[in-house]
Amino acid sequence: MRIRIVDAFTERPFAGNPAGVVLLDTDAFPDDGWLQQVAAEVNLAETAFAHPLPEAAAADWALRWFTPATEAPMCGHATLATTHVLKTTGTATGTVRFATLSGVLSATADDDGTITLDFPTASLTELEVPRNTAEVAAALGAGIVSAHHAGPYIDDLLIELADEKTVRSLAPDLAALKRISHRGIIVTAAAEDPSRGYDFVSRLFAPAVGIDEDPVTGSAHTALAPYWSARFGRDELTGLQVSARTGLVRTALRGDRTLLTGGAVTVIDGELLA
Fold first, then answer.
1. Best CA proximity match to 137, nearest among 168, 106, 162, 155
2. Mean pLDDT along residues 151-179
3. Among 48, 97, 180, 220, which one is least packed by beta carbons within 10 Å?
4. In order of start, what are the domains of the chain with their CATH numbers?
5. CA angle 220-226-232, nearest 5°?
């Protein structure tokens, strides 16, 4: 069985967010315990498993994502990585539809070689600062400008910080963040200099699901897109996730859907023996 490691939301190897991709030749998923063990062995933020669906189905492939610790309800970078493998191996052409825990998601190869994902836009519920955010502020070690809960397919807190420098230099207490009952904590700020090619920056910490810091998080941008589009008055933006690996995500807000665009590179192609 082939397994590939693909760097997503990047145009070069060893950047962006690496994802494991396993294309199954069965008409159903193996046992959940095996899927979780493979994901734990790969030990990346997510490993994606996909199998083809019958022609009459509402989607082309069934797709699931696993962190090293649990199944994920939504994952952008591993969906982009899976699409990249399907395209580069000639397994699929045109727009690919995936049946997932977040409904049917589609992915389309663009003329410039990038891939655009069509995901549901997150809903944002504002939280009162500081009354509802004291624990988060203490764990982050930074003052909070605004806070929102993002759902329903993700369960993240979206936290705006003072500026890009604060986001980049953040060194949170991960043990304290792990005790906060949400999938992850997205921290963000407007770009210091938009002429550098991005409109906002972000980072995501998710120790509760086995990911101390995610390098580039597509699903988080389903919340970042409506947040910053409302602020800037533009539907199309570019976000830079400023983890150590970094990665660019182009976003286009389309009402209850958000388009996420990025590149991908396969860096490992091997055989899964177990």
1. 162
2. 97
3. 180
4. 2-119+260-271 (3.10.310.10), 123-255 (3.10.310.10)
5. 120
